[in-house]
């Protein structure tokens, strides 16, 4: 006599067999699929280059930081010839003030409109944030986004500048991105390099071009992990101490960055974006990413000089403006 377990096993097999037979005979043929209320998903179209045309590309770096401080109306009255974006930190008030009183003064050249902006992230020190807020209410030349202000976030700071130009000042002609310890020979930059009387350039990018590769030494300030950037060479890039580009490039770089893996080395990252855009940066010997001993004739030939203190900035500016009549 068969056991109870054997009977249950046999019954289960019979049930499964019956179910499978029913599905096989009752399944609709392909001619009836269109009559059923079932959405049929088409296979994604593949382009010749292997990308899917009907799949939305996801942003690698959405850069969705809100503005804590903004000067959205800075360019409303009249599109500027030049926008100056200065990367700075909260404690560098003396440097910002020195720039305002020297080469960053927007009223220096009455025939050319210049807009000067200082770029910051958010400090972890509440008091410093409050001080910058008060400074902004006085000078109206500060933009702050809601990310932590740090060396490793310098790329975010540059991208916020690109985003700001693309959003609030897209009709500007040129942009200078620089740092708060840089002296800029504005007369040389505006009249000898950019030349306001000539037709504005497009897809233009210039500065001190560096051709190098990643440093793999973990002790280095410029260490680049292999898993973050596996290539042995960087694309040509301009030193982040100072570079100039046509304003149309700001939007191009910002949009490209949304789909480009973030690198903490800001100037290298901009170079990576430029390579994607097919824009080659031009070498210009007037941009110096090192400190130079001051002499009137030497500084007349440069565009930027690095590692200049607020005191030196005042001294250099006063000497150069008071001796314009002297020939070299």
Automatic annotation (TrEMBL):
Q: Report the domain of life of the source organism.
A: Eukaryota
Q: Could you tell me the EC number(s) of this protein?
A: 2.4.1.-
Q: Which Gene3D superfamilies match?
A: 3.90.550.50
Q: Does the keyword Methyltransferase apply?
A: no
| Compartments (UniProt record) | Golgi apparatus membrane
Signal sequence region: 1-26
Q: Keywords on this record?
A: Glycoprotein, Glycosyltransferase, Golgi apparatus, Lipid metabolism, Manganese, Membrane, Signal, Signal-anchor, Transferase, Transmembrane, Transmembrane helix
Q: Which coenzymes or cofactors are required? A: Mn(2+)
Stated membrane topology is: Single-pass type II membrane protein
Name listed for the protein in its UniProt record: Hexosyltransferase
């Amino acid at each position: 006599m068969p056991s109870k377990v054997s009977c249950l096993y046999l019954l289960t097999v019979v049930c499964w067999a019956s179910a499978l037979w029913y599905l096989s005979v009752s399944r609709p043929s392909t001619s009836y699929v269109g009559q059923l209320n079932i959405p049929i998903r088409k296979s994604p179209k593949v382009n010749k280059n292997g990308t899917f045309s009907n799949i939305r590309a996801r942003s690698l770096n959405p850069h969705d930081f809100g503005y804590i401080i903004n000067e959205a109306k800075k360019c409303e009255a009249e599109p500027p010839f030049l926008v100056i974006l200065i990367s700075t930190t909260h404690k560098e008030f003396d440097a910002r003030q020195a720039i305002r009183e020297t080469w960053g003064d927007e009223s220096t050249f009455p025939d050319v409109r210049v807009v000067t902006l200082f770029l910051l992230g958010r400090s972890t020190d509440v008091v410093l944030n409050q001080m910058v807020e008060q400074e902004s209410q006085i000078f109206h030349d500060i933009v702050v986004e809601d990310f932590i202000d740090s060396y490793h976030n310098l790329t975010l700071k540059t991208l916020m500048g690109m985003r700001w130009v693309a959003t609030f000042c897209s009709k500007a002609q040129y942009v200078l991105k620089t740092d708060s310890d840089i002296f800029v020979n504005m007369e040389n930059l505006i009249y000898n390099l950019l030349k306001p009387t000539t037709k504005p350039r497009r897809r233009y990018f210039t500065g001190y071009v560096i051709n190098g590769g990643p440093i793999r030494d973990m002790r280095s300030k410029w260490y680049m992990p292999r898993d973050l950037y596996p290539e042995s060479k960087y694309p040509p890039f301009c030193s982040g101490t100072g570079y100039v580009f046509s304003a149309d490039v700001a939007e191009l770089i910002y949009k490209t960055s949304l789909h480009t893996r973030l690198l903490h080395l800001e100037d290298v990252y901009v170079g990576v974006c430029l390579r994607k855009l097919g824009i080659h940066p031009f070498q210009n010997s007037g941009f110096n990413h090192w400190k130079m001993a001051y002499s009137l004739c030497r500084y007349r030939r440069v565009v930027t000089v690095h590692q200049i203190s607020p005191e030196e900035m005042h001294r250099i500016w006063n000497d150069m403006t008071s001796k314009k009549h002297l020939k070299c």
